[in-house]
TrEMBL record:
<feature type="transmembrane region" description="Helical">
    <location>
        <begin position="648"/>
        <end position="668"/>
    </location>
</feature>
<dbReference type="Pfam" id="PF03109">
    <property type="entry name" value="ABC1"/>
</dbReference>
<keyword id="KW-1133">Transmembrane helix</keyword>
<dbReference type="InterPro" id="IPR000719">
    <property type="entry name" value="Prot_kinase_dom"/>
</dbReference>
<dbReference type="GO" id="GO:0004672">
    <property type="term" value="F:protein kinase activity"/>
</dbReference>
<dbReference type="InterPro" id="IPR004147">
    <property type="entry name" value="ABC1_dom"/>
</dbReference>
<dbReference type="GO" id="GO:0005524">
    <property type="term" value="F:ATP binding"/>
</dbReference>
<keyword id="KW-0472">Membrane</keyword>
<keyword id="KW-0418">Kinase</keyword>
<feature type="domain" description="Protein kinase">
    <location>
        <begin position="159"/>
        <end position="514"/>
    </location>
</feature>
<protein>
    <submittedName>
        <fullName>Putative aarF domain-containing protein kinase</fullName>
    </submittedName>
</protein>
<keyword id="KW-0808">Transferase</keyword>
<dbReference type="InterPro" id="IPR050154">
    <property type="entry name" value="UbiB_kinase"/>
</dbReference>
<dbReference type="InterPro" id="IPR011009">
    <property type="entry name" value="Kinase-like_dom_sf"/>
</dbReference>
<comment type="similarity">
    <text>Belongs to the protein kinase superfamily. ADCK protein kinase family.</text>
</comment>
<keyword id="KW-0812">Transmembrane</keyword>
Amino acid sequence: MADLEALKIYADYVQSVFEVWTTPLPEFYDPEKVEQYFSCRPHVLLLRMIEVLASFSYAVIRVQFARAFKFIWQGAYENYSLRDSQYHVGQILKEAMLHLGPTFVKVGQSLSTRPDIIGSETSEALSGLHDKIPAFPRAVAMKIIEKELGGPVNYFFKYISEEPVAAASFGQVYQGCTLDGCIVAIKVQRPDLLHSVVRDIYILRLGLNILRIVAKRKNDLSLYADELGKGLVGELDYRIEAANASEFLEAHSRYSFMLVPRVHRHLSTKKVLTMEWMVGENPNHLLLQSRGLSHGENKHTKVLQLEAKRCLLDLVNKGVEATLVQLLESGLLHADPHPGNLFYTKDGRIGFMDFGLLCRMKKEHQTAMLASIIHIVNGDWGALVYDLTLMDVVRPNTNLYHVRKDLVETLGVVDYSNGIPAFKFSLVLGKIWSIALKYHFRMPPYFTLVLRSLASWEGLAVAADQNFKTFEAAYPYVVMKLLHDNSATTRRILYSVVFNKRMEIQWKKVQLFLKIGSVRYVDEKSQRNKQDAFEVVHLILRLLLSKDGAVLRRLLMAADTVSLTEAMISKDAWLFRRYIGLALADAIYRRAILTENGSQVYEMEGKQTRNIGSTSPASTHLHSIMQDRRLRVIFYRKFKEVSRHPLLMLRASWSCFTVFVMALAITLNRFVANFFDAFFNSIKFVPGRIAVSFSQSNSS
């Protein structure tokens, strides 16, 4: 009986071992199931760990050897500038990652976008991982397509290019044509990728656990490996990427400058993704062209160089705006915005590719990000610390006073150049990162994505134009967001910029706010400073009258009447008063010359409507403001409040009187100018008429 029990236990053990050995690798990353899978396959882990250890040990030896003997082996490095040792380290690290396969290449690509952690030189070296991925054989790719789609390739495509047009860490792309004639991009996954990715993530998990024990850290470092594993394994299912691409397209379809390819669902599976073919320039290619490095010396090089620089800067400005659209509007972020996944089209749009990962933001984080941009530009570091707390970046129980003190000491007072913060975004980012490391800030995925994306755009732009400033490109969009969004949280941010605690207008901050915020819009109209300033006023008045002007109208209603009136009659507001004066002059002039019993000027002009001209925008806005019931209510309320302060009322009346006198003077000047213009036109020298008169006098 005992023998039978022992035999049964042994049989159950054999069965359980057999079940473990026959259990397939999970297709979705689950730390427990992955550990169970590899715990009974130690030989697989051991061989891979030896390979990884040998590769990195060899890299370390090469670095030390080069530093010790002050020279570097010739061969793979002869095309690189090795004057900087950190760049050299990055090159060696890049080769090690290429040798170790797709998972390490993917990790290296992520590190290349984090110069704040690994340094700019190492980051530049690792960025080559986006372009140096070797392709796998075409025959293997065709077999994968046939297996996934369930039939021969010619059942689905008229043709597929012989060579891949691009090769990435997890797949490669071919150009093809569907049976109905659509040109498409066909992305095919590398073979046996799931096993190698999960195995490498598990090894990384073991390494982080060992590091936690050695470093005596309380937090579980293996969670970082688990997060990375979930992301990378998720990228292996192209059905998820297809759904992400469709979601990203739908979320941003109303932004005409953003281009997202459409997915051909019937030709997409887990390992094959077919999308609309897009044509455009790679940002790195534009950068090379702008430096004159992609063409030989000829007479067209300079023209191509200037055009490439223009396109690159346009791409960067639209890239910054696209980042802000994702951040502040849709809350749906492209998780891998490196240059290899972006392109610039001939019609000036920015295109996106590779939607394996998307990051979704909470509304409160979007609002906090919006506030942080405003507070950085204004140098309000105390408010920035509060914003970081709302973003879940600052950990609970952190001493906020010390964080604020360090920010003030590190960043200091903001210097402005023509109203724009003089510092670069990368500089601010680097200093914030140093404080983040000191106080052990958390780094939510969306936070690192946004900062990485903006820093990447600035890096591209600065390479072509040293004067580029990210804040100058970003702030106009932020200002328009504040002026159009009528939500309570956004209004609170706007009020913090415009008002002090007593709801008095901070005119200098308002000037800065409008000057930076309207740069993009006024530059399209004129390059003259005075005209630019008029366009700012024009923009504000137009918004005030529109249905989107509820924010501005609320702001006027909430403002302290005394401070608002003092601001309007101050020296700083002279341009606004001049704009009103010009509008009033135009209205008076048109009313006078179009009156039924017009003056002699009207009779002399006759049908010369060119002297009358079309109604100016300023005059139109003034008339609309006077007719708008909502604004009349606001003005009447403010007038009643000002009337309680006789001295202020007297000053305001005098200011209005000077505006009216200025308008009359401008009107009189136009009348006199038109009078003499009409007079001289009536006696204009006409040779034909004089010749006729002369012949008639002779005949008589």
